[in-house]
């Protein structure tokens, strides 16, 4: 009855051999293809560096004016624009300007990458049910797998710094864009589609002129979630050498610097609120046509 | 004191010594503290194996950590042995306990001590034998390209928030890193630091940065510590090199941490030959690094590591024990 009480395990030597085998073959893979992978990601790296330089080298009043302008353009709300200015001024006053700019630049590039990759995947998912059956569980894995698990192979392949950080953030933050795009397109009413077909639209016209515009408010909710999730990953990304607000937080954790941690944490929250309010207000403005329909 | 009394005392101590010799045959129970890091864990297991198989002690492992274990040894005389005690943090109370005869520091457990500093991979050292010191390395930014700007060299810093982040940053300033075309790369965490070494090593790329020994990374990836070119100046070190806001840091070498085996006076008196073993037992960082790397590669426990060490490194441990004890241990393997 031994097997009843003791789980029939694989055996420690076989298990060790298995782990060593997988580790070894991955190591061989990095040795052979690491260089190539780095070249593939080189343009992205250059873009990350460019975006960071742009934000850190531009004089601060211009940066604040541009960000507040964007917030106003997105929301058409004076309240949000003024709130943005005050938040950024406070962040700068407490000596976190440079780190905040680095984080904003990182989040900006991560969000763009997530949209560029996520939108087409979401569209394909909405068109092909087979695709949905594959992508959905993949997204579940991406959202639940502890980040450090996939950071080990990524660091082995690409080293430490911005690109591995971006990969980690995008893996964690891309699922909402994909899911909401898929959902938004699937929620477009069937009668609207029938009407468009009656007018003789091609598949491409139907997608770009009917489905995507009608799905846009839902997609914007996904983008909003993506931004929030990427901000949540700032500290994890800093553990593999991404500069920004995460580094002081790590320092605070290691030394129990309560105030330092709190300030930088609040700065992350501040940016999050700016991005959240601006993108939500933009999403709502896109939805205004719906209100007209309903009177 | 008369001559007679001197003679008498001499005779009594001679008898006492004889008695101690007899007690050695059965050294009794001995508790060994196993600290919660890899090198101390495996050393405790080695002590346990040798003391129980070679000297017939009833050796037991008890879990511990630097402060609680040493405090308990000072106050309660338990456990008997702390095989790998990093004493820098507890110098004062430990010194007092040694002066009062409650504890003894039987030997330096790590012959080289705990070493920190700036390291680079051995394959770079082989290719460029002219690079011996930190200053030499700082002359060649092209050999250690920074991940984000290949035109610059990179010095990989210690993880965020660790004390070494500050002293490495000051060293970067002192050696004129920026002036020499280098940047200080934040590694974020020890996982990031280890990952950057592993990546460079698998691809035989240049790497320069802070690390410390004994560690399994240094056993797995052979690295060379660069000479600072200056002696450790404790006064300047404490006044400036460890301070974040030090205005004008000077070149200074990292202090070597002293790592001793600490034993209670009870076991010193009653252990006999088993105690003599604890006065001879020490090993070099290279040996420890290699063993730790084997343990990491094979995901081995401290006990597995001890057996592996005793099987493979006979030349090291046979020096610690007499020939017939060595025979007993070999028989038990």
Structure explained in plain terms:
The complex is a heterodimer of chains A (295) and B (333). Chain A starts with a helix and ends with a helix. Chain A contains 15 helices and no strands. Chain A has 295 residues and is mostly helical. Chain A has one domain: MetI-like fold. In chain A, helix 2 packs across helix 7, helix 3 packs parallel to helix 14 and helix 5 runs antiparallel to helix 11. The mean pLDDT of chain A is 89. Chain B has 333 residues and is of the alpha/beta class. Helices cover 49% and strands 17% of the residues of chain B. Chains A and B meet through helix 2, helix 7 and helix 13 of A and helix 8 of B.
Describe this protein with a few key phrases:
heterodimer; A: 295 residues; mainly alpha; MetI-like fold; B: 333 residues; alpha/beta; three-stranded antiparallel beta sheet
Question: By CATH's scheme, which homologous superfamily of chain A applies?
Answer: MetI-like
Report the C-alpha radius of gyration of chain B, rounded. Answer: 23 Å
| Secondary-structure content class of chain B | alpha/beta
Residue stretches of chain A low in confidence (pLDDT < 50, at least 5 long) are: none
Helix content of chain A: over 70%
Which band does the percent of strand residues of chain A land in? Answer: under 5%
Number of domains of chain A: 1
* Widest sheet, order of strands of chain B: 3-10-4
Radius of gyration of chain A: 23 Å
Taking the sheet with the most strands of chain A, its summary is: none
* Average of the residue pLDDT scores of chain B: 86
The major beta sheet of chain B can be summarized as:
3 strands, antiparallel
Head-to-tail CA distance between termini of chain B: 54 Å
Shape of chain A: globular
Helix/strand order of chain A? HHHHHHHHHHHHHHH
Itemize the secondary structure elements and their pairings.
The complex is a heterodimer of chains A (295) and B (333).
Chain A: H1 2-5, H2 12-57, H3 60-75, H4 78-93, H5 97-127, H6 129-144, H7 147-158, H8 162-173, H9 175-186, H10 190-198, H11 203-232, H12 234-238, H13 246-255, H14 258-286, H15 288-294
Chain B: H1 3-25, E1 29-35, H2 38-55, E2 58-64, H3 66-76, E3 81-86, H4 91-99, E4 103-108, E5 115-121, H5 122-127, H6 134-138, E6 153-156, H7 163-174, E7 182-185, H8 190-202, E8 209-213, H9 216-220, E9 223-225, H10 234-241, E10 259-264, H11 265-270, H12 273-280, H13 285-298, H14 302-312, H15 314-317, H16 323-332
Parallel strand pairs in B: 1-2, 6-7
Antiparallel strand pairs in B: 3-10, 4-10, 5-8, 5-9
Helix pairs in contact in B: 2-14, 2-16, 13-14
